Amino acid sequence: MSTLTDPPKEQFQLSMLVNDTRYRSLTFQAIAALVLALAIWYLGNNLIQNLRAAGLNISYNFLGDPSGYDINQRLVEYDSQSSHARAALVGVLNTLLVSVLACITATIFGVIAGVLRLSNNWLVSKLMAVYVEIFRNIPVLIWIIIIFTIMTAVMPGPREFRGDNATSSMVLDLFAFTNRGVYIPMPWFETGLFASATMNWLLVIATLVGSFFVMRKVENNATKTQEETGIRPNTKWIALGVWLVPLVLLLFLMGLSWEVPALKGFNFSGGIKIGGPLIALWFALSIYTGAFIAENVRAGIQAINKGQTEAAAALGLRPGRIMNLVVLPQALRVIIPPLISNFLNITKNSSLAIAVGYADITATLGGITLNQTGRAIECVLLLMLFYLTASLTISMVMNVYNASVKLKER
Amino acid sequence: MSDTHAQTVAFVRETEIPPAPPPGRETGVYKWMRENLFSSIPNSVLTIVALALIYSLLSGTLPWLLNGVWNTSSLQECREVLDGQVGACFSVLTERWNQLLYGFKYPIDPAYESPFMQYWRPNLALLLLLIALAPVLFFDLPRKLLAFTAVYPFIAFWLIWGGSILVPIVALLGFVAAGVVFQKYGKGSFAVGFFGGILAAIVVWNVGGFLIPEGASENAMLAAVPSRDLGGFMLNMMLGVTCVSLSVPLGIALALGRQSTMPLIKWICVVFIEFVRGVPLITLLFVASVMLSYFFPPDATVDLFLRVVIMITLFSSAYIAEVIRGGLAALPNGQYEAADSLGLDYPQAMRLIILPQALKISIPGIVNVAVGLFKDTTLVSVISMFDLVGMIRGPILASTEWNGVYWELLGFAAFLFFVVCYGISQYSQWLERRLATDHR
């Protein structure tokens, strides 16, 4: 009988760190860590020396100092006595405002252009191809400048609206397109239930949210009935009632009225003013990114097997229902991932606001604040931190959505 | 029986009836229009709307384009020539073309009469660029042309920046030395060859730096040009070409690093890629213009062009790394296993088996990144570099002669970018068809 003995224990030798694949990765990582540490030490050392030579230090105290500059386009209270942090907040809100607006309109443009590009109509599909090619191949900065120039150099000045022989007039007597911005009517409440306008608007939003939940309940019930009996009850009129009745009642109760912009002296007053830079940025980002989204939408629809459409037609579905029930739900899976990255691009490209003087975070924190305080490192770091957070948040939210529409396989 | 029967038939056709022409509404233009433009009522409405749109676009721009004035020296003169009519003042292009293309400070060569020849240095560099790019873009050309591509960066550097010819020669010699060392020792062990090559290059550059005499740039054959004098569309082209070509190798390294099984290396690459992709290019350009100089040694002066090249290269390498990672992920696992079973080590497997296939898949994506990067080079105008957009918004629109000429200049810029970007994307589509070796 022979007994099993352990194989002789291998002696660890230094050469195994290079020659043995089991240990070699450790060597490489140790070298990488060393190089990384050296690089960080070198850069940090340079930084400290340079800062000492320039008599600077890293400190974020400047954020509390009064900023001393004005911002035209703002969503929250702000004046030149407010702090730099407040200016940065105005910038953050402006960035978010233009990004959200541009994401919505870019999606609309993109879906329309993408669907029309697949149209049977030769002229329309060629026109959309030209749109996509022209807008994709010219830098977005040039588009922003072109539209900004239209807004400032081509639009009439307010004084051209004045007098008996005015050369310009308001569209429908409601909208004024001037070189200082676009004026649109502003809704307000004469007999609001709350003293502050914000609370009244929140009430309106709450009503809409309530209607949404009631409507979802109704739809669920309809689906249940359909599953039991095979016949779906008509919910069109209920939907109309649920959405409209509470809203109209509430608005009537609070006395909704519109403040129409009017020419007073040398400028328009009243209504909501949308500044030229915001419109330039918003519109340019929308049409530029819309061209990219159009290509994604086209690719997504074309990726759906023709058999799917034919099978749906064989089941007796009408073309509209084929699109809604069969093609689009499948195409969405292909369209959404690139759509996410296009939304990210819009958010990042909104930093080009600085080229037309729209006060987004890059223009306030990375522009005027940086120049006034000379705190380059702090400002740029904060700026990067904001964009990084925004990008990661958007991609996280959209990934959750993406996972919810993903193909459910066994 | 059959005979008699045959006689009762008066007429038997022996040839086929020639096909009748289709009805008028089923042929030619009429049919095409009915099928493609007016097949249904919504379609007809769309067609009419599209026609109205095209008409309004053309009627707005065509008179302006065709009635253009090409030979005046200021906007005022141009308006006098137009005399109230609609028309473009293209004379801003004929007068300022050199500023738009080369920037307003690039030195001209007074030895030549024609204004085109006065800029022979950048022009020659562009021509040579096309020759150098040809073997990279078209695989059918003889591979020996790649030798020229390898020398091109040094020739172009000398042509555009001028100064002593010794500088690019020493730089080239460093690379040659690195190549020789790698050839000699790289066969045995990749790492030895690689690091030995780097060491050899550094030695050659340092020795060469001592050999170049102090005032060599002053009275050189080509006048030295400081980087801040570069501008116009040339600057966009230079940034685009340099940064794309530098970021491809860096992107490959990052993509391989992200795939690595070594956790430390993997996480360094992941953090770098995600960080760069999460911030806009403009913040990185801010870093280049206001922050990067803090990280260099106190006595080093790294000029803005180089700092911008560094930041844009880092930016695009992260995007290229993601494209290449897609290519690597698309390869079936069998390829990796086959390479392993042949006994190839990691560098060999990557160089001979994995990367050639992965890069082939990722070429269209890389070209897309390149087009996007080229468009993004216009952002340098924000940190006050005078590229094409910077020239238009800065010196030209601010000059008294041409204050107010927007559309001609912006249209020209848009046209230049469109031609280049559309050309590249058409090339990419052609390449994609060329490379589709499956499903023949």
From TrEMBL, chain A:
Membrane topology: Multi-pass membrane protein
Pfam families xrefs: BPD_transp_1 (PF00528)
Domain of life: Bacteria
Residues spanning the membrane: 26-44, 87-114, 134-154, 192-216, 237-258, 278-301, 379-401
Gene Ontology cellular component annotations, sorted alphabetically: ATP-binding cassette (ABC) transporter complex
Entry keyword set: Amino-acid transport, Cell membrane, Membrane, Transmembrane, Transmembrane helix, Transport
One function term, GO molecular function aspect: transmembrane transporter activity
Principal location: membrane
One record GO biological process: amino acid transport
Location in or out of the cell: Cell inner membrane; Cell membrane
Ranges for domain ABC transmembrane type-1: 92-398
Family, as annotated: Belongs to the binding-protein-dependent transport system permease family. HisMQ subfamily.
Protein name: Putative glutamine ABC transporter permease protein GlnM
Lineage: Bacteria, Pseudomonadati, Pseudomonadota, Alphaproteobacteria, Rhodobacterales
Gene behind this protein: glnM
